[in-house]
Amino acid sequence: MPFKPLYLACFIFIASALFVSCSSVYMPNVPNSPMLSAKNEIHASGHVSLKGNLSFNTAYAVSDHIGVLFNGAFIDQNRRKKDFSQDLVEGGVGYFTTFGKDNQRILEIYGGLGAGTTKRLYRSFEKDDIISTDLQNVRFNKSFLQVNYSTKERNSVTLFSKKFPLNYGTIFRLSHVSMTKFDRNGINQPLEDNIFIEPVFFTRMKLNKNFQLQYTTGSNIGLKNRDFLTAGSSVFTIGLIVNLGGSKIF
User: Source organism's superkingdom (predicted)?
Assistant: First the structure.
């Protein structure tokens, strides 16, 4: 069935929404999946989640098998009872190769480092009056290792009497996030760290030679039991992809 990856992605998102409800001081960005295939290829993408988290990813193929990444993400969400903002930047380097029939499959392995800040404010009300606040400020470092597997399928979707080819991909990212500073209402708190397993699935619809639309979904699983640095956010985004250069089949 041509849409099996899309069905699987929807299942992962629904499961994540049902079982991952805790709030965390860390919100994961969209892992970079540039699908590099040849030297001098340039990738750029922007993604937005339902929570308003914006992720921007770039990549460049410095050779036929070595690529470099630079990613950024931020969110500034203001609600009556809770404000949440986070800034995150990261960079990495890795290996990519094409294989299979007509070299239509891509394997990428990347590792990198990052850093970010989070500000979280809770308000408690009695009627319409604020009776207490809880302000949390966090700085953190991050390291990650990810494996990307993607493929160009012969399947396509028809919209407005026009066929659009579909690409599919899977990302498995392992991230270690550690606080370097944590204060709560101006008082220093014990630092936490956690290891997150982040399986991600994406489907891309090719609009033309260089532009694609991407639907991404995935989960965020924490291996350590923590009070603040928990696995509190899944990945569910819509994005626009730009690839310039590279193998013509992609």
Answer: Bacteria
Query: Comparing 130 with 13, which gets the higher pLDDT?
Result: 130
Structural class in CATH, domain 4-244: mainly beta
Going by C-alpha positions, the residue among 96, 98, 215 that lies closest to residue 164 is 215
The domain limits of the chain are 4-244
Residue count of the chain, please give it.
250
pLDDT higher than 60, residue 138: yes
Using one digit for the tens of pLDDT, what is the confidence trace for 190-224?
Answer: 999 999 999 999 999 999 888 999 999 999 999 99
Q: What is the DSSP string of 43-87?
A: EEEEEEETT--EEEEEEEESSSSEEEEEEEEEEEEE-SSEEEEEE
Q: Which of 42, 46, 89 is nearest to 70 (CA)?
A: 89
Q: From CA 47, how far away is CA 224, in angstroms rounded? A: 28
